[in-house]
Amino acid sequence: MSTRILIIEDNPANMELMSYLLLRFGYEVDMAANGKQGLEKASFRPPDLVICDLEMPEMNGFEAGTKIKTVLGCEAIPLVAVTAFAMVGDRDKVLTAGFNGYLSKPIFLETFVAQIESFLPIEKRCGRAPVQFHQTSEPALLPEQTGRATILVVDDSPVNLSLFRSTLEPSGYGVVTAGTAPGGGGGGRSTAI
pTM of the entire structure? Predict the structure, then answer.
């Protein structure tokens, strides 16, 4: 039976990125768009780990995390907070609220899964090799060479890749596109979304 991770996140782009990376590493992923939905999913089928955004509508991450740990009796399930609004003292606040750890956004492609796996017991880790991203367009210059940010877009639809490129390049971003992200060796510089 595979390890199941519940992601509670209201930002669709972050949800897609986190679920994509975890699926590529062999994890089963369940998704909830807010704290209330996450609580319902955790009560229906307790996960092996919960990743929970802190700033969400309807029920914020602090309330959802506390209820998962206390109301559902899932004290042993690792609970990891993620937020884009990192402030001094947040780490202590999330640990006091019952979370086992804290990750700040942006999410880095090369390190995200390893960070999440650090909260899982060894026997629950999938242990696959890290994802290596392969470029399908011409090589992009590094941001320091162009003076602009470079964005990696991974999508198996050529139409979507073209749409992202045509939307981002006029705004001054460098765009590197990839049609797939097959498993394999690691390395390279960090990329975040």
Answer: 0.65
